[in-house]
Amino acid sequence: MKIFIDTGNLKDVEGLVPLGIIDGITTNPSLLSKESGDPRDILKRICQLVQGPTSAEVVSTAADAMVREGRDLASIDKHIVVKVPFTRDGVKACKTLSSEGIKVNVTLCFSPTQALIAAKVGASYISPFVGRLDDISTSGMYLVREIVEIYDNYDYATEVLVASVRHPLHIVEAARMGADICTCPAKVIDAMFNHPLTDIGLQNFLKDWEKAHAAAASRP
Ligand code: G3P
Q1: In this structure, which residue's CA is closest to atom 7 in ligand 1?
Q2: DSSP assignment string, 111-176
Q3: Per annotation, catalytic residue among 2, 44, 83, 92
Q4: What's the pLDDT band for 220 if we cut at 50, 70, 90?
Q5: Which residue of 42, 53, 124, 193 lies most exposed, with the fewest beta carbons within 10 A?
Q6: Which residues lie with the beta carbon below 6 Å from any ligand 1 atom?
C-alpha cells in the first residue's frame, strides 16, 4: 500500500521523505492556509522533494472555473494531481480534466455511490474521509471496504486513497482491505514506527554487548 503525507508543511515533507516510505502528498486549502508563503511555491517545492503525486485542490465551485483552475494547478509541476470536491460541478470538472490527461483526486467522499460516480468520470483517485465519518458515529472503514469491493467488481482503475486518517489502526485496516493508498498526517506516520518493545529490546542488546566487551577488555 502506498503512503502519502497529508500536509502542506515543508518540514513534514523534508523530515519524512528521506525515510524512503513516502509515495506522494495530499494537500487541501485548510492545510495550505496554515503555511506562510505562496501556495504555488510550496506546491512546487513539495513536488520537487517527493517526486510523486501531489494533490492540489481547486477552490472554485463552478465546473468551468474548476477546470480553468485545475489546468492552472496542473501547470505547476508534472506531479500535480488536481483535487476537486465531490459536487455535481466537481464531477463535471473531473470528466473534462481527466479527458485532457490531467489526474484528478475526487475528495470529500462519504458514500459508495459518490465513489462509483467518481470512477465513472475517470477520477484517478477517490478520497473517502474515514475520520470524519467516525466522528459522527459511522464507520469510515466500512465505507472503504464497500468502495474496494465495488471497484474490484468492475476493474475500475480509480485508486482508493483513504483520507482523514487519525491513527495507525486506520492504516492497518486500510491495508488489510486492499486500499491503494493511505494519506496520513506526519504524526500518524511517526506513530507507525513506535513500539516500546523495540526500544527496550535494543537497549538490552546494546547493554549486553557493552557488558561483554567491558568484561573482555578487563581480562588480563
Ligand atoms: O486531506 C483531506 C483529509 O485528509 C482531511 O483530514 O483530519 O481534516 O478530517 P481531517
Answers
A1: 164
A2: SHHHHHHHHHTT-SEEEEBHHHHHHTTS-HHHHHHHHHHHHHHHT---EEEEBS--SHHHHHHHHH
A3: 83
A4: confident
A5: 193
A6: 6, 26, 28, 129, 131-132, 163-164, 183
Q: Looking at ligand 1, which residue's alpha carbon is closest to its atom 9?
A: 164
CATH topology (fold) of 2-194:
TIM Barrel (3.20.20)
Told to judge if 2 belongs to the known catalytic residues of this protein, a careful annotator would answer no
Q: 52: Cβ–Cβ under 8 A, 6 or more apart, which residues? A: 22, 23, 24, 25, 79
**Rounded distance from Cα 31 to ligand 1 centre (Å):** 9
Residue 50: all three cell numbers together: 517527493
Tens of pLDDT, residues 164-219: 999 999 999 999 999 999 999 999 999 999 999 999 999 999 999 999 999 888 88
In ligand 1, the atom with minimum distance to the C-alpha of 31 is: 1
The per-residue pLDDT of the chain, averaged, comes to 97
